[in-house]
Amino acid sequence: MVPADPDKTPKVQRLERRHDQRKKLAVEAELHTAGSAAPLRVKTADLSTIGCYVEMMFTLEVGAKLKIGLWIKGVKLNTEGLVITRDPQVGNGIQFTGMAAQDRATLWQFLADAQDG
User: Fold this and answer.
1) pTM for this structure?
2) What does the H/E/C string look like for 3-66?
3) CATH 2.40.10.220 fits 6-116, yes or no
4) Less CB within 10 Å around the terminal CB: N or C of the chain?
5) What is the three-class DSSP state of 103?
């Protein structure tokens, strides 16, 4: 049985829910939360076409909606996102919820190139 609170979900169970392979890549990112004028500047710990994990000391609540900027090879990709996991004082898992097709294609190619390199 899976706990109702995602913060208490064992990491192994969370890994099994992933729908796309994440790659260990550090990419500069900006997280814009509702009610905050300045973005949180972070780096991804891993990245896929459907989400990322960011390491941060002060984590965001599960369910928080975000506007996200990802810097890929000097180009800023924009998407909306949703915090889906929270590991206090470690980081957050974020699902991308609204990325333009062109930005998703750019991200896909970046990840494919990283796989080959």
Assistant:
1) 0.80
2) CCCHHHCCHHHHHHCCCCCCECCCCEEEEEECCCCCCEEEEEEEECCCEEEEECCCCCCCCCEE
3) yes
4) N
5) helix
Q: Is 100 helix (H, G, I), strand (E, B) or coil?
A: coil
> In whole numbers, what is the pLDDT of the chain averaged over residues?
86
**Amino acid present at 55:** E
Which has the minimum average pLDDT: 5-19, 32-46, 92-106? 5-19
* Cα separation, 1 vs 104, whole angstroms: 34
CB 55 within 8 A of CB 25: no
Alpha-carbon span 117 to 111, nearest angstrom: 10
